[in-house]
Design goal:
Blueprint (H helix, E strand, L loop, with lengths): L1 H31 L8 E4 L3 E4 L1 H16 L4 H15 L26 H4 L2 H13 L9 H9 L11 H11 L7 E3 L9 H16 L2 E2 L4 H4 L4 E5 L8 E5 L5 H17 L1 H4 L1 E6 L2 E4 L5 E3 L9 E6 L4
Parallel strand pairs: 4-5
Antiparallel strand pairs: 1-2, 1-3, 5-6, 6-10, 7-8, 7-10, 8-9
Helix pairs in contact: 2-3, 2-5, 2-10, 3-6, 3-7
Amino acid sequence: MRTRAVATGFVVLVLIAAIGMIVVLRQAGEGLRLPLAGRACTVQADGEVTLDSQQMANAATIAAIGVQREMPERAVVVALATAYQESGLRNLTGGDRDSVGLFQQRPSQGWGTPKQIRDPRYAAGKFYAALKKVRGWEDMRVTDAAQKVQRSAFPEAYEKWADESQVLTRALLGHASTAVTCAVGGDPVMRGAAAIAALTEGLALDWGLRAFTGDDDRQVGRSYFTSAVDSSGNPTLLKVGINESPSAEGVRAGWRYTHWLVSHAKEHGVKRVTYDGREWTAKRGDWKRLPDSDRGDTEVLAEVHADV
């Protein structure tokens, strides 16, 4: 009997331990909210962050909208930390109650229609507009600034993403070169003219860039984009001209657009990006230095997959 009691007690202890482990893992998963597999992109800028291609593209758009709205760098950190916590940097179709999108904004609370909020650019713009209205947000902790906008039931939750968001912000705002690397495998989602059209639309919406018109006076102090065909006449080339000063800011702007292009490579069929003497390819998935003769810091060149 005693042996049976000991065995029964042991089984009970094992079950309790197993249940406890399940609870811990579940809580950890709920807190992390990011997938543990399929992370195709690595960001290195005074720290390291790994994301999948969808998360990387969303992060790049959030950062770009912040720059377009002339928000301080700190605002981008707050926005990314908020999206990390609310959606795992995913454009969700639903959530708690009527919450939608990257920031889990609620139509019933005046954030917009579900369709509008599902647009990452609209959602990011609404977040920045709300943050700008918070008095003294620049001097607050990341979690406190985010909470003033989100009014979450878990106000401290945003802080755990502050470090990751700082790494992403440094890279996506061009403070580090070759900081975003993405491995893009499989058949491209887009090719040729469709890919070029999607990229130019993205550059216009995310960054506010304009197509080059040949009128130099309109382009002074502004970057621009233009497309071209390859040697076979296929529309596969896109150039982003860097027309900003001083030169240090111009280089940072170049890396902003470069990292944006790599971040959106999978969804837009980008196979190669070059800037400032460096080259990234989807096939290789990393950066390499080009010969000095190919070095240049006045334009970013992107190549998409040609139509089959």
